[in-house]
Queue: 2 jobs
Job 1
Amino acid sequence: MKPLEIADKIKERFSDEVLDVKEFREQVAIILKKNRILEICRYLHDDPGLYFDYLVDVCGVDYLGEKEKKFEVVYHLYSITHCHAIRLKAEVPESNPEIDSVTAIWAGANWHERECYDMFGIIFREHPDLRRILMPEDWEGHPLRKDYPVKGPEEEWAGFRAVLDRAKRFKEFEWNE
Amino acid sequence: MEQIEKTFETRELTISMGPQHPATHGVLRLVLTLDGETVIKCTPHVGYLHRGIEKLGENRTYFAALPLTDRLDYISSMNNNVGYVNAVEKLFGIEAPERAKFIRTMVAEMGRISSHIIWLGTHVLDIGATTPFLYAFRERERILDLFETLCGARLTVSYPRIGGVRNDISQEFLDELYEFVLEFPDRMDDYETLVTENRVWKKRTVGIGVISAEEAVNWGLTGGMLRGSGVNYDVRKHAPYDAYDRVEFDVPLGENGDCYDRYLVRIGEMKQANRIIKQCIEKLPTGPVMADSPKFTLPPKDMVLKDMEHLIHQFVLITKGPVAPEGEIYSATEVPKGELGFYFVSDGAGKPYRMRVRAPSFVHASILPKLCEGGFVADVIANIGSIDIVLGECDR
């Protein structure tokens, strides 16, 4: 099925939810409201004509100052049976950065959503195990946000300071003598 | 006689495997809860090699982010480069010349062989077959030597460039590669004699880490992991890039989705890769190796040294970066580990607004609890080897 036809199908069924449809280089992105994302994904996965069985990727994008809603969660879907692809983008405001998790539909979403939480601070409701994944558990801030400095925070991470302290303590032992 | 009753109390044991463990292929840490020999719970911890490549990519021009992709999957950096340049070319709307496309296909398949062969060596070494390991490195060494004659670098090559490849290949390189291609099937037979029908090997891998076709798709697995379960999905066939639509190759498939079938699939892939390289050498067209689109590609170096206009052109492109049109693109390529995807959001500046790397190893590491729980500790090693992850790519 052509990506624009898929977009029409979603528009037809969830007319209130679709905000915009964009096409660039034959790839179609559907911009959605976040509230019924789980329902839309369930429909895309279960409908035999669409059957998006493979969730390629989930990631976040931070539009600081560029858009009204600060974040977007981007889902790339592909159907191995029908060989068609679509991109869903759900808008998430900064004041309430929460969205439903799609782990119940695609098990592979688990780590992608954890990473998105880690990097952007977007909370996925009903996620089985929402913890930080790449950064240390006690890290402060979310690195891929646009207001996060590239060089990292001024102050060293507490975990690293603890390692340095321990190294200093062990220096007291003169191993060579 | 007095009967002595002995009651044994068993308790669960939690151990930490890694991050410094030779069989975890990098810095993967697994927290295992054991009941005797059986794994009850397995929790993978990743992120020890997190360098923030996505964040760095957002702050560099499209040219300058290319060497970062070498550091993703550092044992097959050629394939990452090909994936990156394909995505950027799609975003810019340019196309590499035919000769460059064939060269890229060729070097990408060389990268696939070198990656699979190191996987083969380490995987069988983990399980206890020491012999193939050094033989495998002998073949890998030849490919790395060929890379060295090609571009001067052995590991972090950065040879494919946006709009083509860095330099044309020499006849000397082609001759040497052709010699390798002719010899390689014999070498494969050697490995297969050592491993494929080996009784110990089969005992350790057949029926271990089974994953069904539906589950594999649902978990988002790609590459050898998915095809080991019998799902026919290969980006090279489904959405051909470079010259893959002009070469003939088969996609090897497994049936049972266990460690042994994944092994067979990857062995088959190496043979197919060899076939592709041979066809590329035979069909290699003549012509330029860099696209002629001055907005996005650098001028030829010899002209830069002679001519003022070209010098200015190079200066502007390097300092400001090629300006991409506003839009967003997702482009996937088949790397040895699976589907490597790049997602770019461009706001019309010289740098990507958002660069996302969809790393196959990251997805594959997430399936470890499912594969390991309920099995033995020794099978954890077989599973880690079989999913073929590189932590540089997993953690980015």
Job 2
Amino acid sequence: MNNGEFEPRIIAFLCNWCTYTAADAAGVARMEQPANVDVIRVMCTGRIEPMFILKAFAEGADGVIVSGCHPPGDCHYNNGNFKTFRRMPLVEALLGQFGIDEGRFHWGWISGAEAPLWAQLARNFTEQVRALGPLDWKSQKASKED
Amino acid sequence: MAGDQKLKLALYWAASCGGCEIAVVELREKLLVLDQLADILFWPVAIDTKYKDVEAMADQHIDVCLFNGAIRTSENEHMAHLFRKKSKVLVAFGSCAHEGCIPGLANLNDRQSVFDYVYLESPSVDNPDRVVPQPMTQIPEGEINIPKFYNTVKTLAQVEDVDYFVPGCPPQAPQIWSVIEAIVAGTLPAKGSVVGANEKTVCDECKYERNEKKVKKFYRIHEILPDRVHCLFDQGIICAGPATRGGCGALCTKVDIPCRGCYSGAPHVVDQGAALLSAVASVVDADTEEEARRIVSEISDPIGTFYRFGLPNSLLRRSRLGKQQGEKS
Amino acid sequence: MKKITIDPVTRLEGHGRIDLFLNDEGDVANAYMVIPELRGFEKFAQGRRVEELTDITPRICGVCPEAHHLASTKACDAVYHVDPPPTAKKLRELFYSAFFVADHTVHFYILGGPDFVMGPDAPVAERNILGVIHKVGVEVGTRVITARGKAMDIIGLLGGRKIHPTFGLPGGVAKFITEEERQQVEATAREEIEFGLFSLQLFKDIVLGNKEYLDMILSDAFTMPTYYMGMVDANNKVNFYDGKIRVVDPDGKEFVKYSPNEYLDVIAERVEPWTYLKFPYLRKVGWKGLETGKDSGVYQATPLSRLNAADGMATPRAQAEYEEMYKTLGGKPVHHLLATYWARLIELLYGAERLLELSTDPEITNPHVRNLPTEKPTEGVGIVEAPRGTLTHHYVTDEKGIVLKANLVVGTTNNYAPISIAVKKAAQAVIQRGKDITEGMLNRVEMAFRLYDPCFGCATHTLPGKMALEVRIYDTAGNLKEVLKRNM
């Protein structure tokens, strides 16, 4: 918490070749980015099992980002991102049924040359999640029933 | 009690259907063998021992307790603690104790919404005074207490220290027997293990031919006539087999019905529902996001499909408390 | 008042507790049959795909999952407005007949039977399946396991899993049978008929041939006139799988005969705050409290109720036994609760005969066992007779077949009011001022519950007769006055 204000905790799974490169470039260029976003680098968004996203929320994330190379042609492994766009719509539906607002989960494509887009996403998404408030899934799990 | 060498066994049912009891009955003539090996100290379905008898036992008096049923009420939790205290070995027996099973689907609701529907809104209820069950009721003769219904279904391991897990809804008789043999022979694996199942998935025991899967349309079980030769998944029917631990004999696919996942998640899988979702998504035959969305939008009720048996044991365990189905925060 | 608690009730399915309140004179002022459990199926069915309820609702009960499976399947047929092919319906009824044989076997020999076969006051060490086997012989015990097992094998053949089988779906069934499989079923059916006749003879020799037991059956403590409910076919004969539901009044006259869609006009449910189970009653007669007779809406739905509500059995040997029962007990309807055991065995025989009829039906191996639904799903009711009573599944869905609402009136639930009354009656007859309370008396109180519940049985042969009981008696100030123990 910063001065009592809620600081969202956001986990971002970024693919090494595209969005991670963009985020790195944004950092080097000192583009303004909030400290709320923790980046986890994966080699390809195709590596992201739905379980990672659920685990992030279960362990305290207020928001989750998945971002990688633009389909159809940019993926370093040809069609890793195809797996991503086949999985993510179902993950969206699943999260909705769990009662997690769609504003807490963003997935998309940002190439290595689009650093400003990354910085903007990090800023906007943080504010979007801030407005939704803390998810605090851990205390729901921990609550002991008397 | 006759014979110091006999195994002292107890069987208890928490929030359960009784199917795990009948599963033990399905041992059939092997029960005569069990009779030679064990004394059953507590088994409400079959013998007349009462709770007070268990309370009066010394700690760890029971050698093995096969505890089935989910933790739904305060009485279920109380009995979990009681049997842990009185038993050397506590086994989460069957899907309800292991993962929550079907009663775990109530984790999409809470106490208030369950009571509102069951006691106030259900079509056949005639309840103008809006009476709902209470933990304590004053009646003319005195007081009647009933256990508290929790908001959330829990697994046995979420309330107590569990030694072994036997999956299945219900566990199949040959598997139950292999567990009993291991108990008697002292060959159980490390504490915390899943026993009574194998280290593969259901697909390994399934009769169907499996080819590469490319699904353009998903079907519900009544929407098509599957050919009885090829994998149901290949034909667009969601089958939980790839994400489910093997050992059941693939009985459902044997009669041309898809696996629903009752034998718990496949080995090394952290969250069965997420694994099944991933399996389903990977067979979607789409080369654009739009097409992928279109194909998977056919899949209604993702939680009911992917977490049919394991919702309480999943990463998220339940839907957001305080929200009704469809609400989000 | 003094409170005596029997906790838990045993040799039944599910959880229950009996709270007995004694006044200062030592008579039973009241008795409460408390059900301390609820899982909420009616609520969490909402949001599910309706056809998946055929696999979800069997988890209501692992002893009669076949009943829920078929009630659910029929409700789904109705939701989708689809009529299964004739062979599918026959296979469903064949599957169900085999199940009835297995389930009624378990109740008579293992669950409730020991009370009757051994006697209510038999020593606890003998009042279980082991005692039964000692009395009737190991051969009989093996015969029982085999009879039950072969019937369950038919369930497994058709439904994969024997417990929570997967067989029916909207529009039909998933599997057809080959000629070889049909022959196996036919052979089993013939054996089960012999087993049914054998069981009835055993009952007549051991129970009816014993005057003390006959007196108990006819005693006022276990006699209760109520309305009776059961499913009947077009000829008003007992049918487990399909037909209309008939209710007769305590005099045996038809009160109503309704189709599944009309069930809400007939049944309502009452809620009490001291128990999780609801009390169904006949809406048009009304809830008059836990009372019996023509003016009270309390009704029974048990094997005896089914025989009372019908005009006969649809198969010849069962019909002969039906006639003998009513002749022995003085005509229809029979209000003697313990005659439920007799009715149950007659149903076992009927189930076996029906299994033979269906397994030799010329259409039974026809591979056309599914019709695909073509209409939009809306709403439907499916009813079958569970061994423990009439079972109703009612689903309302949206146009995609997602459940909006579900209502279930389950077999034993029908009988909750009569069970409560019976337990109180038995308690008041058996526990009286001036008499020491013995273990056998408490068991007789439990017997009033046990005769209603064939849903759970256990074919264990390992019962070591370890019956331990503690009864704690408190005075009106809540001080512990006396503790009676046995085997502890």
